[in-house]
Amino acid sequence: NVTLKNIKFYNSGYDLKVDGGALYIEESSNITIINCLFEFNQIRDADGNGGAIYVKSTDPIRIIDSEFKENSASYGGAITAHNATLILENTTFDENSAQRIGGALNAAHSTQIINNCTFKDGKIELGSSSDRCRGGAIYAKQFDEDDEMVITNTEFKNNQVDDDGGAVYIFGQAKVLIEDSKFSENSADDSGGAIVCDIANDL
Fold this sequence. Notes:
This protein is an all-beta fold.
C-alpha cells in the first residue's frame, strides 16, 4: 500500500520520451493520492501518455481531494490508465490538454469510478493528419466486459475538441452510467458536443 498526501508535483517530465510526467505506476495495488496538486507537468513525445500520471496494471488507484492543472501529453493530458481501476473523488481537472485524445483522462481496458469531480477547459490542441481528436475531457476505449465507467455528481464545462466528443468520448465500453452530472458549454467541431458513445454495450 502506498499513500501520497499533501504533495505538489510541478513542471515535471518536460523532455521525457516515456510515460507519466510526474508519476509512473505499474503492477501495484492500493495506491492512494490525497490532497495533491499536479501542475504544469507534460510529456512532449508524440507517443507520450499521461502528462501527470501514467498508471498500468494497478488495482485500485484512488485520487481524492486533488487538483490537476495545465498538464499535457499526446494521450491523456493529466492521466492515462491502462488495465487499471481508477477511482476519482472530489478532484478538479482544469485546463489540461492533449494532442490526440483525452484532454484530461485517457483510459483503456480500465474501470473508472468518478464522483463529485470537475472537468473544465480541457482541450485537444492539435491532431495529426491521420488521427482524429477525441474526448476534450475523457477518452475511454476498448474495455473488457467486466470494466465499467460510472460518473456521478460531476461537472463538465467548456471542454473542446476539433473532432468528436467535446467532453466525453466512449468507444466499446461494456457498462456506462452517467448520473446527476452537468454538461455545459462543451463543444466539438464534428460530432457530440458533450458526449459520443460508440458501441457501448450497456448505457
